[in-house]
Design a protein that fits this description.
This protein has about 150 residues and is mainly α. Helices cover about 50% and strands about 5% of the residues. A hairpin with a 6-residue loop joins strand 1 and strand 2. Helix 2 crosses helix 3 and helix 2 crosses helix 5. The longest helix has 22 residues. It is globular. The chain starts with about 25 loop residues before the first helix and ends in an 11-residue tail after the last helix.
Length: about 150
């Protein structure tokens, strides 16, 4: 029997240790969203444009409004990921407000612009929505069940 010296390929590493701030409980894609933000633009769809009042034309939104909607979509996605793993609002808050986490930039901007209390209120509202959505859905056990 021939001896194979081929080693297994190393797994992709994220630049931040998962052990800190509870990231190890999340799927790698969720942890990357928190750490690196929306690198693919997945959550930007529709954020920078809207349907015009005539119902047929597309109107471009102001940069700040589009960026805020995009940031909110990222924040809501992160909240759903945390809720699905049985996380808490305190863990979500810690993840979003950590200065090195790109995925939390929207909440961090609210804290800088309007104060910590306003950012915490925003996070509470997002958490309430996320937990309601997660409670009302069932995660499929397999592709077959999906």
């Amino acid at each position: 029997m021939p001896h194979h010296s081929r080693q297994a390929e190393p797994q992709r590493q994220t630049p931040h240790p998962f052990g800190r701030l509870g990231l190890h409980h999340l799927r790698p894609t969720a942890a990357e969203l928190i750490l690196l933000g929306d690198l693919t633009g997945r959550y930007a769809t529709g954020s920078y444009s809207r349907l015009g009042s005539d119902g047929r034309t597309v109107a471009i939104r102001q940069d700040r409004q589009g960026a805020a909607e995009h940031g909110h979509r990222v924040t809501a996605a992160i909240a759903c990921h945390v809720a699905r793993t049985g996380g808490t609002i305190d863990e979500l808050t810690q993840l979003l407000l950590h200065p090195d986490h790109e995925g939390g930039r929207h909440a961090q901007h609210i804290a800088l612009r309007s104060g910590q209390a306003r950012a915490l209120d925003y996070i509470r509202r997002v958490w309430a929505s996320a937990t309601a959505v997660v409670a009302g859905t069932r995660v499929p056990d397999s592709r077959h069940h999906a």
